[in-house]
Amino acid sequence: MQPEYFIGWDVGGAHLKLCLISSEGDILRTEQVACPLWKGIEQLHLAIKNLSESFIFSSAVHAVTMTGELADNFKSRHQGVEEIVSAIAGYSSPEQLKIFAGKAGFLGVEEVSSHSNEIASANWLASATWLARKLPSGLLIDIGSTTTDIIPFANGQILTQGYTDQQRMIAGELVYSGIARTPLMAVTKKAPLAGEWVPLMAELFATTADIYRILEKLPEYADQYPAADGKEKTRSQSMRRLARMIGADKEEYSEQVWYELTEYFSEQQKITIQKACEQIYAVSNLPDDAPIIAAGTGRFLVADIAKKLQRRNTDFKDYLNIKVAVEKFDSADCAPAVAVALLALESK
């Protein structure tokens, strides 16, 4: 019997993203909840329960991709893959569960142990594989809360140099920089302030969420974790946290000075991502007319990057059939969850 629904799962180390689609491929719902997997596998169960009322688990095919196996509570990525799949298996029957394993396609639960390397951190490949079936060529830039994936594709082929996280970081295809959870000390080592260069403190006083909150670009729903100091998520408090990064108090400088400092951090982050794109363009031989496809909650950064790269910028959701109004997380925010659901539908 034809399944009525498909649910795409993207299990990260910090968030769980789900997408519900119909058997006709219409996007019906997307959602993301915090899932601090490093605290233990029970956090995944809690996240699933938080979403269980919004998603129809019993009558759906479940397609799963992940990056959460890298969480440091697992002794190995292999163990992480097995525990994540085992947790999800408790909410569906074996015949309903499809595990995405990249070029190996979708696997059953009984095949997971022998294919953990292909399953681990393959969510980027789900997004790119689906796009490669829809477009002649392109460069996917998916900027999330913590990381940025940069994936070239052309003529139905994924043109990446790496597959594992380590390989992809070397190739510039995985940049550990996002718009919410990245500590500012990871963005730059020093910053200009009132005519002087000030080194940053190597302390978790502030994150990129503070930067984009001050710049009024951060979608507040995308910042699902407490601030570095556990205090309010306001522009004023973000400026106070930013001041600590340079050993100062907020009151020592005007709001304009803090605003200009945040612009510098944002620009440095965009330069980092741009340089990674240039590294990829140098070896992938993408056509000049290949568009950039922006995804993730941080895709508001991509327009500036595309302009500097002199490439046309498009949005992941432009290529989808979306049937419901979205209040918070939309399909482009949860691209791997959407893509893995659509791939499962196409493979039925």
Q: What's the CATH superfamily of the domain at 5-136 and 317-346, by name?
A: ATPase, nucleotide binding domain
How widely separated are the two ends?
A: 11 Å
Main β-sheet: number of strands, strand sense, barrel status?
Answer: 6 strands, mixed
SSE order: EEEHEHEEHHEEEHEEEHHHEHEH
Q: How does the overall form come out from the CA principal axes?
A: globular
Q: Residue ranges: pLDDT <50 for 5 or more in a row? A: none
How much of the polypeptide forms β-strand, as a percent range? 15-25%
Q: How many distinct helices?
A: 10
Number of strands: 14
Could you name the CATH class of the domain at 5-136 and 317-346? Answer: Alpha Beta
How would you classify the quaternary structure? Answer: single chain
Describe the structure.
The strands form 3 sheets. A 6-stranded mixed beta sheet has the order 3-2-1-4-5-6, sandwiched between helices. Strands 7, 8, 9, 10, 13 and 14 form a 6-stranded mixed beta sheet that branches. It is built from 10 helices and 14 strands. It is about 30% helix and about 20% strand. It has helices at about 40-50, 75-90, 115-120, 125-130, 165-170, 210-215, 235-245, 255-285, 300-310, 335-345, and strands at about 5-10, 15-20, 25-35, 60-65, 95-100, 105, 135-145, 150-155, 155-160, 175, 190-195, 195-200, 290-295, 315. With about 350 residues, it is of the alpha/beta class. It starts with a strand and ends with a helix. Helix 4 crosses helix 10. Strand 4 (about 60-65), helix 2 (about 75-90) and strand 5 (about 95-100) form a beta-alpha-beta unit. It is globular, with a radius of gyration of 20 Å. The protein has a domain at about 5-135 and about 315-345: Nucleotidyltransferase, domain 5 (2-Layer Sandwich).
